[in-house]
Known about the structure:
Blueprint: H1 6-19, H2 42-53, E1 55-63, E2 66-73, E3 76-81, E4 84-87, E5 94-97, E6 104-107, E7 120-121, E8 123-126, H3 140-152, E9 156-158, E10 172-177, H4 183-195, E11 199-201, H5 216-224, E12 228-230, H6 245-263, E13 269-271, H7 279-285, E14 291-296, E15 301-302, E16 308-314, H8 321-326
Parallel strand pairs: 1-6, 8-10, 8-16, 9-10, 10-11, 11-12, 13-14, 14-16
Antiparallel strand pairs: 1-2, 2-3, 3-4, 5-6, 7-15
Helix pairs in contact: 3-4
Amino acid sequence: MKKLSAALCCALLASMLCACGKADAPQLVAHDPTPPAPPVPQEIKEQLKAEENAQLSGRTVFVEGEELETWLVGEEECLKEGEKFTPLSETGMGLFEDEESGRRYLSASLSDWEIPENLSIPVIRYYGVCDYEDHSAVEVAQFRQELNWLLENGYTPIFFEDLQNLEGIEKPVIITFELCREHDYSTVLPVIQELGVKISLFPVVEKIGKSGYLNEEQLAEMSASGLVMVECGAMTSKSLEGRSSEALLSEISGPRAVIAGITGIVPIVYSFPESYFNDELCEQVSQYYKFAVAGSGASSWNSSDSPFGIKRIRTERWEALTSFSQKFE
Length: 329
């Protein structure tokens, strides 16, 4: 007898089952190759639950100058980035709240960070930039020439805040401005935008908006450029020598909320008026700021020295470039 093929046997069997009226014939079940879905990670589950329970808090906070709405997730006040909610206490940033205005500010520079040790950093002091007769200010061409010299000789202008992270920066330099006169808006800002140079301003609060001085709108615009950090001069230009405790509190702590209200960024550097300071004043300033600058006289600041009372390199009008460059030797 000839052997039947496997296919023929199957066909024969199926025919016989049908003929017998077998209603309960076994059914062939197709195999689903799709693997079962993996379990949802606990982190995702918690995030979905947070989204479900989140609601706007009705409050805002300035984060590095940008005003953002906050959310409540349970009892935690959070920032929302994309679909992620982060409690304010877990952002890694420091929080400052102005009790008078109720405005709040978050910034990495307000956190507890360590100043790098044994860095020699030139800190330059300008009184302004203008071409008309002003013996305290340098001319525009001189300012541009000096900045170009710094860049060509490997210096990278930074803010004090940038000392948190100097990765890739071999020769940092900090450029500061006192007085903050109105002409600096039209002379300084275009030059630093052209060259991509960072500077720090120290306006005296009582002078802001007065005739001949930068106003709030100009300071805010300069800050928004990303190339200008507005730090703190005092409330007035009077020396702190012999002042009452109440006056000292106003002169030292008061400017911080004023400048933050203008730029959305809390300053961390103070400038001693008339460059007068002592150990007691440095201790008071340290309660509100991380650094304080004073007069001129140094070629550089060593970061292992006190960050309060930092001396700076003073620039001179009509100073030859060779003279300027020698101050960095």
